[in-house]
């Protein structure tokens, strides 16, 4: 079985977002970049399937050269090789085209990625890739087992969950608790240095969507504290002052 | 520039978030000098379908094929793409949801569309087509230029307040050609809580964290939620500990919600939790730790023991 795991390189979840260049670029100063948390779940489940079935894992990132530490970490966790498409990943359709082009050339049985990136939060790339490849897509996937050429899946729906089956090949957007995140060990870190990381140039159409500028939310006003022994006052304030209830 | 709005049903009724999407779509239609058509899939009676007119739609296309009775993102995308083709629509509007997420992407792939998710304001069409969306899990906004001929806008809940008018939409049957490939995924079973208020749709949310000390104490959270007609939610540690189901987890790696009122009980307010709830209109924080960082992001705060405060709030709501 051949598994493609697509990963994003995103600011650490604790990052306070700020912009530079007249609000047209993320201020990367002092920001730590990590593998997208949802992508980490996808990779962890791929590594478990590799241990169980002898699958091979290729990790794919659409990003510029500064994402390579994140890709190397994925190799250290258990991916066999990596591909970086040398482009800034700002448009879901454009990113999907890059992934689909590589998938068409290599015939993967499973294409796994996070349910969404935590920067643009679009949650769209997996579905567009699957549509381009003419295969099913399922998201957000909480449990995944492979039985021959059939995937058994549990996905989250509003207010519950749903059990599904589908034949491979498939594109899946993953989330917890599909697997426990993996931490690279020393042996993994050493071997990652020698694993292939191929850089290819982007193909396809121009970006269909671009970001003209960014903005930060207006800060909230000062908190109004209510003494605990007059807690009931809160309900009156929500009713008469905030007018939400 | 015709506008097509996909409206989602919940037990035969147009979801509130879809009413917002219809109103949003009708405003875009007004701005572009065209009309708003709504596509609805699945069983619903004509009165409910015609009620799309209250929110600005002039026509409803209704697809009722038995194969479409269960939500299916792939098949629904085929239906909406066919409706867009019939209507000559180059702007498609829908409310962000679990079903919409699955559908929007397939639709964008089919139509080679530019799309913006988590849209929070009407477009600016004075020079091109620009929409504002929420990014970085609510920590920032982007102004997106949509350059493709077809544009898809997935609207974040609670970002536009529909004005209702006394009008009915005309209703037409719509019979698209369905693809066998759209039914390649078979649903084996579904577990869904019934009767509860769906968290992503809720106007009020009462949420709790480790400060509740254990799942056996959730009764006081549920009591307040019931009195307020609110949904219940939880922080990530609570769902990680299996005190509550993952579908209630709000935060950076859980649901992102934007209710009118979010009451956080015994949650300290890590930046990852805040990211999922900071679009709430009013935030109330109840925590016995006066230094809990969440108070800095709250509109109202109570430093106190949730086991004492929550039952008193429930009684006060019941007395309203």
From TrEMBL, chain A:
GO MF entries:
electron transfer activity
Q: Which InterPro entries match?
A: ETF_a/b_N, ETF_b, ETF_beta_N, Rossmann-like_a/b/a_fold
Q: Which UniProt keywords apply?
A: Electron transport, Transport
Q: What GO terms fall under cellular component here?
A: cytosol
A Pfam family reported for this protein in Swiss-Prot or TrEMBL = ETF
Q: Which domain of life is it from?
A: Bacteria
**Which residue ranges does the record assign to the Electron transfer flavoprotein alpha/beta-subunit N-terminal domain?**
23-207
Entries under PANTHER family matching the protein: ELECTRON TRANSFER FLAVOPROTEIN BETA-SUBUNIT, ELECTRON TRANSFER FLAVOPROTEIN SUBUNIT BETA
* Family (UniProt): Belongs to the ETF beta-subunit/FixA family.
Protein name from the UniProt record: Electron transfer flavoprotein subunit beta
TrEMBL record, chain B:
Q: Does the keyword Transport apply?
A: yes
Keywords recorded for this protein, A-Z: Electron transport, FAD, Flavoprotein, Transport
Recorded hits in SUPFAM superfamilies, A to Z, give: Adenine nucleotide alpha hydrolases-like (SSF52402), DHS-like NAD/FAD-binding domain (SSF52467)
One of the entry's Gene Ontology molecular-function terms is: electron transfer activity
* Co-factor binding details: Binds 1 FAD per dimer.
PANTHER family to which the protein is assigned, alphabetical: ELECTRON TRANSFER FLAVOPROTEIN ALPHA (PTHR43153), ELECTRON TRANSFER FLAVOPROTEIN SUBUNIT ALPHA, MITOCHONDRIAL (PTHR43153:SF1)
Q: What is this protein called?
A: Electron transfer flavoprotein subunit alpha
């Amino acid at each position: 079985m051949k598994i493609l795991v697509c990963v994003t390189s995103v600011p650490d979840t604790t990052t306070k977002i700020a912009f530079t260049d007249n609000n047209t670029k993320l201020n990367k100063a002092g920001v730590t970049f990590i593998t997208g948390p949802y992508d980490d779940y996808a990779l962890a489940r791929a590594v478990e399937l590799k241990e169980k079935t002898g699958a091979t894992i290729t990790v794919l990132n659409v990003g510029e050269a500064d994402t390579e530490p994140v890709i190397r970490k994925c190799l250290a966790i258990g991916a066999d090789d990596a591909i970086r498409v040398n482009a800034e990943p700002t448009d879901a359709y454009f990113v999907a085209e890059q992934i689909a082009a590589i998938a068409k050339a290599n015939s993967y049985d499973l294409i796994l990625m996070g349910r969404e990136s935590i920067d643009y939060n679009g949650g769209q790339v997996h579905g567009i890739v699957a549509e381009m490849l003419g295969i099913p897509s399922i998201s957000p996937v909480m449990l995944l087992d492979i039985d021959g050429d059939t995937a058994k899946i549990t996905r989250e729906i509003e207010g519950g969950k749903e059990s599904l089956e589908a034949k491979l090949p498939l594109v899946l957007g993953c989330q917890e608790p599909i697997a426990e995140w993996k931490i690279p060990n020393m042996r993994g870190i050493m071997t990652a240095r020698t694993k292939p990381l191929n850089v290819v140039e982007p193909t396809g159409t121009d970006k269909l969507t671009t970001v003209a500028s960014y903005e930060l939310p207006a800060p909230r006003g000062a908190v109004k504290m209510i003494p605990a022994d007059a807690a009931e006052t809160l309900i009156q304030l929500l009713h008469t002052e905030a007018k939400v209830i | 520039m015709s506008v097509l709005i996909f409206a989602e049903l919940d037990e035969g009724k147009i979801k509130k978030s879809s009413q917002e999407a219809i109103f949003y779509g009708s405003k875009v239609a007004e701005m572009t000098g065209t009309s708003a058509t709504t596509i609805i899939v699945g069983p619903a009676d004509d009165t409910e379908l015609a009620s799309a007119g209250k929110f600005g739609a002039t026509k409803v296309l209704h697809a009722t094929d038995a194969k479409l009775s269960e939500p299916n993102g792939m098949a629904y995308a085929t239906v909406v793409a066919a409706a867009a083709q019939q209507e000559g629509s180059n702007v498609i509007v829908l409310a962000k949801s679990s079903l919409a997420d699955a559908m929007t992407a397939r639709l964008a792939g089919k139509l080679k569309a530019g799309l913006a998710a988590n849209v929070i304001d009407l477009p600016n069409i004075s020079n091109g087509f620009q929409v504002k969306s929420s990014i970085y899990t609510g920590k920032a906004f982007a102004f997106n230029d949509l350059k493709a001929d077809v544009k898809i806008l997935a609207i974040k809940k609670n970002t536009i307040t529909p004005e209702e008018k006394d009008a009915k939409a005309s209703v037409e049957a719509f019979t698209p050609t369905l693809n066998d490939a759209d039914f390649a995924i078979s649903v084996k079973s579904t577990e869904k809580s019934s009767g509860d208020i769906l968290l992503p749709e809720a106007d009020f949310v009462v949420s709790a964290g480790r400060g509740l000390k254990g799942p056996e104490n959730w009764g006081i959270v549920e009591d307040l939620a019931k009195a307020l007609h609110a949904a219940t939610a939880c922080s990530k540690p609570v769902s990680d500990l299996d005190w509550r189901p993952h579908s209630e987890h709000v935060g950076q790696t859980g649901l992102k919600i934007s209710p009118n009122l979010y009451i956080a009980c015994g949650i300290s307010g890590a930046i990852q939790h805040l990211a999922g709830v900071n679009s709430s209109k009013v935030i109330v924080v109840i925590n016995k730790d006066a230094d809990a960082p969440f108070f800095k992001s709250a509109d109202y705060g109570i430093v106190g023991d949730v086991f004492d405060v929550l039952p008193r709030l429930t009684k006060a709501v019941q007395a309203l």
